Amino acid sequence: MDEGRETMIGIRVIKLDETDSTNEYAKRIAPEVPEGTVVIAKRQTAGKGRKGRSWASPEGGLWMSVILKPQKVDPRLVFVGALAVADTLSDFGLAPGIKWPNDIWVAGKKIAGILAEGKADEYTVLGIGLNVNNPIPPELQRDAISMMELIGTPLPMDRVLERLLFHLNAWYRIFKERPDIMMAKVRERTFILGRTVRIVEDDNVLIGRAVDVLDDGSLLLDIDGQLRRILYGDVSLRIP
Ligand code: BT5
């Protein structure tokens, strides 16, 4: 990246009616487009979460991917997305919390998920899925919610996007200049601290009290008095 030039996330927005996954689309074009390019699709036919999980992406939601080209790939980029989504939800009067490492919850349910992928030191694609006006599939209704459901009326998508781009720009800049300040905000927005959580990592299950989110983005867990750092790679966190 050219250090002297400030990136503008959303300087170019590619709007699609449908694609497999905006993250996959973004990865295909990433080498040829400038940093800050955004891909949005009305529908995804193969929206995905982490570890091959699927992401329900019917029309009405905000399904987007941001192409970033930081000097050095950094797993904490996922928090740029999480904080930007949280601030956007606050702008609409909602009270979001970050469920470390990559979910945003409101009223005890998941409203958004972030999926960062990339090619080391070339680009990072920051995928953001936010339930805005889309229906939630019946099998997810116990655990997922949309902005429309919470607010009681459909939201103007352009306005949601405008707020999200604004906050993405602000947090990306803070991330580059003062990652410690960004992590302090992550800590403040993380609602699991002090609570007992279950960490599932492949076949390994850890149960402990979430104590802190450290500056490197890892979660500090107290397991029967023993402190353990959990790196966020591909772990899942459940609240028992
Ligand atoms: C995530 O994965 O939460 C990351 C989701 C990222 C989606 C965006 S949309 C734009 C971009 N393009 C893509 O293809 N992906 C990104 P994970 O932590 O693995 O959570 C996945 C789980 O969330 C699923 O197994 C379901 O339980 C649940 N889920 C699926 N669709 C959902 C939805 N629309 N709202 C809330 N929860 C959902």
Features:
single chain; alpha+beta; five-stranded antiparallel sheet; binds biotinyl-5-AMP; BirA Bifunctional Protein, domain 2; seven-stranded mixed sheet; 240 residues
Count of DSSP H/I helices? 5
Label the overall shape: globular
- Give unreliable regions as ranges: none
Task: Please tally the β strands and state the result.
Answer: 12
Label the structural class: alpha+beta
The CATH superfamily of the largest domain bears the name Bira Bifunctional Protein, Domain 2
Strand content: 25-35%
Classify the oligomer: single chain
| Average pLDDT | 94
CATH second-level architecture of the largest domain: 2-Layer Sandwich
In this entry the ligands are: biotinyl-5-AMP
Strand order of the largest sheet: 1-2-3-7-6-5-4
Using only CA atoms, what is the Rg? 17 Å
The CATH class label of the largest domain is Alpha Beta
Indicate the CATH topology of the largest domain. Answer: BirA Bifunctional Protein, domain 2
Secondary-structure element order, as H and E? EHEEHEEEEHHHEEEEE
**Amount of helix:** 25-40%
Largest sheet: 7 strands, mixed
Structure commentary:
With 240 residues, this protein is of the alpha+beta class. It folds into 2 domains: 13-189, Bira Bifunctional Protein, Domain 2 (BirA Bifunctional Protein, domain 2), CATH 3.30.930.10; 196-238, Roll (SH3 type barrels), CATH 2.30.30. 25% of the residues lie in helices and 32% in strands. The protein is built from 5 helices and 12 strands. Strands 1-2-3-7-6-5-4 form a 7-stranded mixed sheet, sandwiched between helices. Strands 11-10-9-8-12 form a 5-stranded antiparallel sheet. The longest helix has 21 residues, at 157-177. The relative contact order is 0.15. Bound molecules: biotinyl-5-AMP. Residues 21-23, 44, 47-50, 53, 55-56, 63-65, 102-103, 110, 113-115, 127-129, 131, 140, 144 line the site of biotinyl-5-AMP.
